[in-house]
Structure formats: structure tokens, C-alpha cells
Amino acid sequence: MDPRTGGVLAMASFPTYNPSLLADGISTKEYRGLGAGTPDDPTDDKLLNRALQGQRPPGSTFKVVTAGAAMASGVADPSSYLGCPPSFTYGITFNNWTSADMGSMGFARSLEVSCDTFYYALGARMEDAFGAKEPFQKYARRAGFGHETGIDLPNEADGRVPDRAWCNAIRKATDGAICPYGWVPGYTINMSIGQGDLIVTPLQMATTYAAIANGGKVWRPYLGSKLSVPAASGKGRLVRRFDTRVTARLPLEPDELGVIRQGLVQVVSGASGTAAGAFAGFPLDKLPLAGKTGTAELSSTDSSLNDAWFLSYGPARSPRYVISVYVERAGHGGESAAPIAREIWEGIGGIDSTTDVTLSRDSSG
Questions:
Q1: E strand segments, the chain
Q2: How many whole angstroms separate alpha carbon 6 and alpha carbon 8?
Q3: Is residue 268 part of a domain?
Q4: What is the mean pLDDT of residues 318-343?
Q5: Within a 10 A sphere around the Cβ of 180, how many other Cβ atoms?
């Protein structure tokens, strides 16, 4: 995606299929071979366009949203420092991805090392300060989640930003099997690291990272900007110009966006960055990048069942591209999604890399 305009420059989903099968009629056997079109089985859903229909928890890539919501709501500011202990207790105990106490840190460092407990504390602060006013959810929707982005393609998924109204409705619909006690603060704390009942699409993630990259503009993504027909002049005659517009703006000051952007740079280039291994040997001096790893934990015992994410943009100081990579059942974001993004960046930059990638085992949410 081009963060300056919202234009989608490339989009891909795998597994794929040959669309010509649908052009001249398709047999029952061929149709069944395309799969059921759901994300439940990664090997059997060729009709699902994961870019705009794949709905999954975003893991730690969502921490930029938590950071923005915390600063926009006033429970933190760009100079805030919080601890990064092994666990955080709020009624129950929420564990960090590491058992080490990483000490006190600010926003940039918290993104670099992907500290879960830093963000648990921010979620708790918003819950304590505002409760049912739900500024976290309101900010998330403003940033592009919980509703269609409006891209000019059919069947886009909404995703979900869980809140009290959703919780009450699902509790009633499931006779209390889900949200049995109504909304509890733990749901906000889980959402603060991109887990729980929050689900997003790769396109939504690209849209919000584009907003961070461009200074706060949430664009409506698009594939087509205008329709022209051939003309004798060779330039084409404009028939229609499609609506390309900013749908919202992140309510953040430049210094608030700045500390988030600095953290994303450190994720890729910092000594402790969770994507530093994946970009070892990459010429960041020539093509500086910013990004965030994420691991959507679908199993507490088998990391191979987890989904991997990596969101990035570059060049870091004057972004022209945003890349959203999501890989189902692929382990950690630094191990699988970030190396894929690196290959794309090498293509964009015309970089012929022969450096072996040192995969980072980013176990954070």
C-alpha cells in the first residue's frame, strides 16, 4: 500500500486457484477442490482472500494501536515510562512473553522488545480511568478496525473490536457460554496485546500502519482511482474518477506519533529488536525500515499452531510503501513473516542479499 494515497499496489493470498475455472462453468469436483472458503484449514480454502477476509487476532502488531489509544486518552504521554516485569496482576495474572524483568522503559523501547506487561498496564489504566466509555475501542475503530475499510472489492470482512455491547449480545446468543460474566477488565488487557476476541484483516493492519507512516491519515484503500477510455490523442478520455479519500485521522500529536515511529524503527534495527535477526545484513543505511512483529497465540502449548504477522513501512523517514504479511500456523512473526517481508523489501530496493537470516524467536503476543 502507498501510505500517501491509500492505493493498493499489490495484493496476494495463498493458497490460490486459477480463476479461469469459473469463467466457462465449473464441475462439482473442481468446485470442491477449491475448498470451503474458511480459514479453519489453511490447506482447504482457496476461495478465501485472506488479504481482506482473513480474520485473526493481530498479536503484538496491535500494540501500536494500544499505544495510540493510551496517549490519545491521556493515561500516558510520549515521555511515560512503565515497568516490564515478568507478569502483571489485575485480578488474575497475565504473563509477559519472557520471564526476565526487563526494567523500566518508554514507548519506543517497549515496541522494540515487544513487552507485553507494558501494554497490559496501559490497558488497565484505560479500563480504570474510563470503564464503559471505552476510549480504547473508539480509537481502534477510528484507526480502521471493526468495520470495512471501504476498498473497491466485494465481500470484505469487518473484523471485530470487542466491547461491552458485543459481549452482552454474544452472552445472550450463546446462553452464557461466551462472556459468561459480561465484560471484565481482563478482556481489555488481552486486547492490549492484540489477543482475546479482537480479530482483524491484513488490509486493516496495512491501513492503520499507513496512518502511522503518513502522519495520521486513515485512507480508504483502493485499487482503481479512475476510469478512462482510449482516445485519439493517446492519453485516454476520463470517464469517471473514483472516490479516494481520508476517512479519519488518528487523534495524535506529532510527538505522540513520533515515539511510536521511533519504536518501529528500533524493532528492525535495534540491538534487541524482535525483527533485527530477520533483517541482519540488510542495507538499512540505504533503505531504512520500520516494522513490528506479532504472534497470534492460538495454542498455549504448540507454537506451530500460532499465526505470524509482520507489518512494516519504508523508507522510514519518508514512507512510500506499507507491507502487511500474515502467515497462518507459522509460529512466531520474527521467524516466518518478517523474512517474507524482507524479500519483498529487497525486491522494492533492488537489493541482492546473500546474507543468511538469523531468525528471531519473538514469543511475544
A1: 82-83, 87-90, 92-95, 104-105, 217-219, 226-229, 237-241, 246-249, 290-296, 307-314, 321-327
A2: 6
A3: yes
A4: 92
A5: 11
Residue 226 lies inside a defined structural domain of this protein: no
Give the pLDDT of residue 334. Answer: 87
Question: Is residue 133 a contact partner of residue 59, using CB atoms and an 8 Å limit?
Answer: no
| 63: its cell numbers | 500494540
> What would the grid cell of residue 149 be?
475499510
* Three cell numbers written together for 30: 473442481
At 60-82, the pLDDT tens digits run 999 999 999 999 999 999 999 99
What separation, in Å, do the N-terminal and C-terminal C-alpha atoms of the chain show?
25
Residue 207: is it exposed, middle or buried by C-beta count within 10 angstroms (0-12/13-18/19+)? Answer: buried
Q: How many residues are listed for the chain in this entry?
A: 365
Distance between CA atoms of residues 148 and 150, nearest Å: 5
DSSP conformational letter for 235: S
DSSP string for 156-215: ----B---HHHHHHHHHHTTTSSSTTS--HHHHHHHTTT-TT-BB-HHHHHHHHHHHHHT
The C-alpha cell 503476543 sits at 365
**pLDDT greater than 90 at residue 310:** yes
**This model's pTM is above 0.85:** yes
Q: pLDDT band at residue 355, thresholds of 50, 70 and 90?
A: low
CATH number of the domain bearing residue 87: 3.40.710.10
How does the average pLDDT of the chain come out, rounded? 92
| Number of domains into which the chain is organized | 1
- Structural domain includes residue 254: yes
3-state secondary structure of 41: coil
> Which domain does 255 fall in, by range?
48-220+248-349
